Amino acid sequence: MAYAATNDKLSDAIGEITQLRISSDKEMLIALNKLSTFPDQCIFTPDPHTRRPHQHHDLRSLIESQQIASYKEFLNSFKEVKNGVKGLEHELSNLHDICNGMAKNLTASKQNSRNLIDEIAKLENERKKLMKERKLVLAYQNSFQLNADDLKILRGTEHTHVDVLSPEFFRVFEKIQRIQSNVSILMKAGHQVTAVEIMDQMGLFQETALEKIYRWAQSHCRSVENPDLADVLSKSLSYLQIRPMLLKYVIDEYSTHRRSLVVRSFIDALTGVGNIKGIELIGSVDPVRYIGDMLVWIHQAIPGEKENLLALLKNCRRDDIDEKVQNCLATILDGVCRPLNVRIEQTLLAGYDCIIMNKIDLLLLFYIETIEQVVSGSNLLSTLKELQSSSHQTFINQLKNQVQAELGEFRPPSSDLTPSSIINGLLSLLKDLIQANATAEHTHTIIDMIVTPLVSQVNQVANRLGSPDQGVYLINCVNEIIKFLNGFQDTESLRNGLQGQIDAQSDRLSSEQSSWLVAQLGIGHIYTILHEKIEDPLSSVPGMDAPALKIFANKLDTLISNQESVLLPQLIQIGDPQTKKNIQKQSFRILVAIYKQVYEAVMDPKNMYPPNLLAFDATTLEEHLCL
């Protein structure tokens, strides 16, 4: 019965199982899938050691036991977790304690930081204050003191040879000058003691620097033509202006050196160097060129020396630089004075003619004026002036001697009364001298030295001649002199004086020509009769009768057709046509005056002259005679 019942239950269970739709029941599938993981049937057989006496062998109990095992396993794992949580809790507690400690420390640090910040702010203010004070100290030091580097630069080469002063040295020197000028600020601020101390200290530094500049400039001033040293030398001399004596010593040293070089170069130019011929080789051939070449060399040397001086002093103040250049140039050129003086004096004593001496005199005068514009007040200029004075006096003496020698002997004029060869020779000499002349004063002197004795000699020769030869000869000679003087300025007064002599002689010759003309025409007795008081008709007076007047009219016609026929033979020798014409006109005017009186007497009815005795009146006669 029991078995049957069991089977019924099993059948019912199986039926229920078959009725289940396992494929659609997810939970069932999961459970079955879980069961499939259990091992084979033996695993459901309990362990003999653990099996209980009344324990049923069924799946539920197995599952429950497995579930219990799982729970135990979970419980054991949870214990580990719990132990881990407890450890974590302990560590967190420790961490909490640490954080609390850190919080306390942080609070304390925050308080300390606040104090530190205040301290830092205080220190920062102190730092700013110190920085300001440091800046003030540095500014004070830069304005009133030399730093260690400056002192090293200033003294570093004090006892050693220096080829070139460095820009840093000049910077330190300028700083010293700037400090000295800044001391006035301290004086105004009331720090007189400090200012005096600084001035004393800077004065010592300045003297040290100036001493170094002076010694360097003195030893290198000869290298002004070196482009590497020219700028440094110029700057050095500009600083030495603070001590004028030191600057003067350097310039004197430079002048002495350049003077020796110029003298050496001048001597080489005179004597020649190598294959180059010297100036002295042409001295005996052409003395004017010889002296001119020497003066040209000196004149050409001046611009180069002046350029070097200006380059040396270009940075100096302009107030006295011109005077320094003048004095230095004068010193440099002093060296050529002695050799130049000796050679020119030898030339002057060689006895050249006055034309050459005049050229030398004018050459020296020209270079005196030229060099005086560049180097006034120098020994060279004084030497040239002395040489010019000597050459001028030599020229004057030689000219006097030559003129006296030419005019010394009396030589009567030629038969044609033309100027003698002596006059032409002296005028030719005067022309040569004046053509080389440069100044009006010199020209006037030469003209006066030749023309005055020449005119005097002409008058002396003329006075020994008879009249009218005297007047003709004098007019010819003086006209020749005036013609020569017309080509030169500033001779008007002399020409006027000479023209006065010609006019005086022309008046004398006009009077003689008039007398000659009256005599040739035979109207002397007619003029006398006209001025006598005669009551009878003039036609009845012998010499005034109609035939006599007819003869006079015929002679007058001949005169009109050939005016030269009644001239004095000497007047034909007058070389100047205008003078000759003037003399002839004056005599013709006298003739016209006499003819007018004759014509009026003929036209007067009381004189009973036949009509048409005279063909024309006095006015017509003037026209015929071109008056």
What report would you give on this structure?
By secondary structure, the chain is an all-alpha fold. The chain is built from 21 helices and no strands. Helix 12 packs antiparallel against helix 13 (379-407). The radius of gyration is 71 Å and the shape is elongated.
Percent range for helical residues? over 70%
Unreliable spans: none
Look at the helices and sheets and give the structural class.
Answer: mainly alpha
Give the biggest sheet.
none
- Which outline best applies? elongated
- Element order, helices and strands? HHHHHHHHHHHHHHHHHHHHH
* Rounded Rg: 71 Å
Strand segment count: 0
Percent in strands: under 5%
What is the arithmetic mean of pLDDT?
79
Taking the alpha carbons of the first and last residues, their distance comes to: 216 Å
In quaternary terms, these chains amount to single chain
Number of separate helices:
21
Based on the model shown, name its key terms:
627 residues; mainly alpha; 21 helices
Reconstruct the topology from this structure:
Elements: H1 2-19, H2 26-35, H3 59-144, H4 148-156, H5 167-189, H6 192-220, H7 227-239, H8 244-271, H9 287-312, H10 321-333, H11 337-348, H12 354-372, H13 379-407, H14 421-435, H15 440-463, H16 469-485, H17 492-521, H18 524-530, H19 546-561, H20 577-603, H21 618-624
Helix pairs in contact: 4-5, 5-6, 6-7, 8-9, 8-10, 9-10, 9-12, 11-13, 12-13, 13-15, 14-15, 15-16, 16-17, 17-20, 20-21
